[in-house]
Amino acid sequence: MIKRAWIVLCGLMLGQRCWKWWQVWRFFDKPIPAMQHEPATTLVSLLQPILSGDPHLATCLRANLNAPSSYKREWLWLIDDDDQVAQHLCYELQAEYADQTIRIISLPAPAERVNPKTFKLITGLQQAQGQIICVLDDDTSLPAYGLEQCLPWLDQADIGLAFGLPYYRSFDNAWSSLVALFVNSNSLLTYVPYSQVSEPFTINGMFYAMRREVLEQLHGFAGLEHILADDFAVAQRVKQAGLRLQQTSMRHAIRTTVTNAQRYRSLIQRWFIFPRESLLRHLNLRERSLMFCLAIVPTLFPLVLTIVTVLRPSQRQRWFAASYTLLGLISFIQIDQHYLEQATPRRYWLLVPCLELLIPVQLIQALLAPQRIVWRGHVMDVEKGGAFRFVKRRDEG
User: Fold this and answer.
1) Please, what is the average pLDDT of the chain?
2) Ramachandran category for residue 76: left, alpha or beta (phi over 0 → left; psi -120 to 50 → alpha)
3) pLDDT tens by residue, 114-156
4) Which domain holds residue 193?
5) Is position 286 within any domain?
């Protein structure tokens, strides 16, 4: 009985790996809707909460300013009063790109239990003048004509928010490379297949777009300040209003420097703790089941497969393990080369199977770990349901 169940599980896991790859192919074959508004007369406000600390910050900000677009754009850079490094950089870039509309908004530290990013977005929305509001993280770079791939979806019936797909370009050191490999090998194969069988229940908060009138009808970002997972909070507000979340084919690059093993572990743990304490506690049974079948089980399976192959070796078991691993590697290479701008250097390709064994261990650790995380230099305790409290702020040393 156990042997038969194991054979069935192996068959299902091999099938889901093929199915997910096929769904990615189908997704990028779908056409982008025709534009209903003239881009040259449509002002897009891009709200960017900015915090210094990463050596790639200037590179990312410049990349967005240099990215061509047919839309009129204004950049609202939301920075902290006491962040002198960010202040200097932003004013320097504002002078360098005098032909672009850049507004620098300096803000005090948020109150206790107030999400720093949401706090900035509330102020940024009040001063934004565009018909379309975009939220863009400071480590995220839009591709050339990326807005043209995303914004036309907002004209479709019942779509309240459109968002993109992230991938990483950070391969400066071993720890940054591990994070980049994790995202590049999982992002499309996680988000895209789910969006093909169910309405998305959350978004990628690195970049998303909404029409201003829709956002104002939903009371903007007000009332979401006390929720740490701001992207999930925004997504839930949109869905509760009866509007849809649209996963678009726009891919945006991210550059984040991870300097050592402790920061790598902290980052991965944060990514797993966020959904554990906020997302999973608000999903219905169907959404939880889909997440379990399409994300959690496939993540844990490579580790289980390796353990079984080592403890109960057989020619058939070794053949299956090799086939499953090879299929994963080939699908990763094809996706990276065709859909992620060949972001991953070839010397890292063979690390993908190794990472498939490391990530399950970190997932289990995060599921058992306390709710404390480090986010942008802030130490926080994440509470059940998604609220939080500061344990130590970034500027407290």
Assistant:
1) 90
2) beta
3) 888 999 999 999 999 999 999 999 999 999 999 999 999 999 9
4) 42-174+185-258
5) no
In one-letter notation, the amino acid at residue 217 is Q
Kindly state whether residue 231 falls inside one of the protein's structural domains: yes
Query: Is 23 part of any domain?
Result: no
Q: What is the CATH number of the domain that holds 205?
A: 3.90.550.10
Q: How many residues does the chain have?
A: 397
- How many structural domains does the chain have? 1
Q: Is the pLDDT of residue 2 over 80?
A: no
Nearest to 254 by CA among 302, 206, 212, 287: 206
Per-residue burial over 249-263, b if 16 or more Cβ lie within 10 Å, else e, is bbbbbbbbbbeeeeb
List, for residues 329-348, the tens digit of each pLDDT value: 999 999 999 999 999 999 99
Q: 3-class DSSP state for residue 372?
A: strand
Q: Which of 353, 397, 392 is nearest to 374 (CA)?
A: 392
- Read off the pLDDT of residues 190-248 as tens digits, 9 standing for 90 and up: 999 998 888 898 898 899 999 999 999 999 999 998 888 888 889 999 999 999 999 99
Query: Degrees (nearest 5) of the Cα angle 148, 151, 155?
Result: 130
Note the maximum CA span of the chain: 71
Amino acid at residue number 204? N
168 and 254 Cβ atoms separated by less than 8 Å: yes
Q: Tokens at residue 46, please? A: 């891009």
Q: Which of 389, 394, 397 is nearest to 114 (CA)?
A: 389
Residue 392 lies in a domain: no
